Amino acid sequence: MTEFKLDQFLPYQIVVLARRLSVGLAEIYSDKYGLTVSEWRVLAHLHDAGTCSVREIHLQADLEKSRVSRAVARLEARDLVVRAAHSGDKRLLVLALSPAGSKLVEEILPQALSFQAEVLGELEDAEGFQTAIRTLLNRDD
Amino acid sequence: MTEFKLDQFLPYQIVVLARRLSVGLAEIYSDKYGLTVSEWRVLAHLHDAGTCSVREIHLQADLEKSRVSRAVARLEARDLVVRAAHSGDKRLLVLALSPAGSKLVEEILPQALSFQAEVLGELEDAEGFQTAIRTLLNRDD
DNA sequence: AAGATATCGTTGCAAACGCAACGAGGTCAA
DNA sequence: TTGACCTCGTTGCGTTTGCAACGATATCTT
């Protein structure tokens, strides 16, 4: 009989860890600001990108394009994001943060960063851990 | 303006990694054997535990009890799991793998383990990585 | 021993999900 | 320039999800 402990199985451990971190982070962007994961990622990416299309967020933020589309619609309804037509290619949307959106993101980011710091702070070799994560993320794409 | 790159943000990286590993693993238990994540976890835990209740799987395998309940129902319909009443406490269910279930798990496990080995093989310091994961998983519970 | 409380597994339901299909617009070749 | 093909963002739809509520059983309290 093959020896196998689910709780020592790496893919399982990482999925569990991911869920825990998500729940922890959600206490910030969801409980305090009423944002979903999709919305938070859209805002975060726009903060960095300045301006971009739905497709770019889909690719850069690991979100189904339908999730991006609906998240953007909700964010626009809350006046956190501005949606405009691209002048050159009319298929594209030009998304950007509104002033209120920028303000909101600036309010959330420090908290997100401190959450990250708190997590990393528990590790002996935080550097090595981050390198490992990056290594795994860069495989096969 | 706060500096923030979503793709360098640890919680995000781990969620993305978790999804990738899940998809990779699913090529084994889902594509080849038609199992869902919930079903796979139930089988894996039963393989190790021998016999247990819905609640125990709920706690040990990080699954909502409704997911366990439904997964068990499907597995029983496929004759992979046996569901019996507990003699002492009639609220409890006694779950166990059927012979066919055992056989199936024995077939899958080596593939799961080799998938894990493949992932760990890409890391310089696999030991350190696993230690870090365990550290993070043991916080606050 | 009886009533209040807690726990077990199941079920109902609203919301979220992923995927496929769509219309609108762009690109490329002949 | 016209037709085939590709890409963009949105929408529809069946499935899955998490949560709350439920009936049944156990336990605790007095």
Q: Most extensive interface: pair and counts?
A: A-B, 54 and 54 residues
**H-E order of chain A:** HHEHHEEHH
Question: What's the tally of helices of chain A?
Answer: 6
Share of helical residues of chain A: 55-70%
For the termini of chain A, the CA-CA separation is 36 Å
Overall form of chain A:
globular
> Oligomer, anyone?
homodimer
Mean pLDDT of chain A: 95
Runs of chain A with pLDDT <50, length 5+?
Answer: none
Give the strand content of chain A.
Answer: 5-15%
Radius of gyration of chain A: 18 Å
Biggest sheet architecture of chain A = 3 strands, antiparallel
Q: Mind explaining what this structure looks like?
A:
Two copies of one chain form a homodimer. The first copy, chain A, contains six helices and three strands, in the order H-H-E-H-H-E-E-H-H. In chain A, helix 1 (10-32) crosses helix 5 (99-121) and helix 3 (54-60) crosses helix 4 (65-77). With 141 residues, the first copy, chain A, is mainly alpha-helical. Chain A has helices spanning 10-32, 37-49, 54-60, 65-77, 99-121, 126-138; strands spanning 51-52, 81-85, 93-97. Chains A and B meet through helix 1, helix 2, helix 5 and helix 6 of A and helix 1, helix 2, helix 5 and helix 6 of B. Chain A binds a DNA duplex (30 and 30 nucleotides) through helix 3 and helix 4.
